[in-house]
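sorry to bug you again but im stuck and you know this stuff better than me. below you get a single protein, a line of residues and a line of whole numbers that encode the local backbone shape. mainly i need to know what kind of three dimensional shape the backbone takes. anything you notice is useful, everything is just below:

***
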Amino acid sequence: MLSEYPKKEDQILLLEMQGALKLGIEALQKQIAFKPELYGDGCDKYGNDIIDCWCCPRCQMGYEIECDDCKYCPNCGQKIDRSEIEQC
């Protein structure tokens, strides 16, 4: 594709535009809510898992459900679908 643009300035501009488009696509993708992975680190007296943590589906950072009431991941900005978190 760069060979279609013989001037170096045109090639630089094309590369800059491609970079800007990539950033825009990534930003839009982060606005789509994804369900986090839910997990727990303990059990109740009946042996049932206590789900008290969630993990970002994009960056895999973990957070506690009770302490971190986030609509977006604090680490990467991914929108989080909290519907299952609210049930815990």
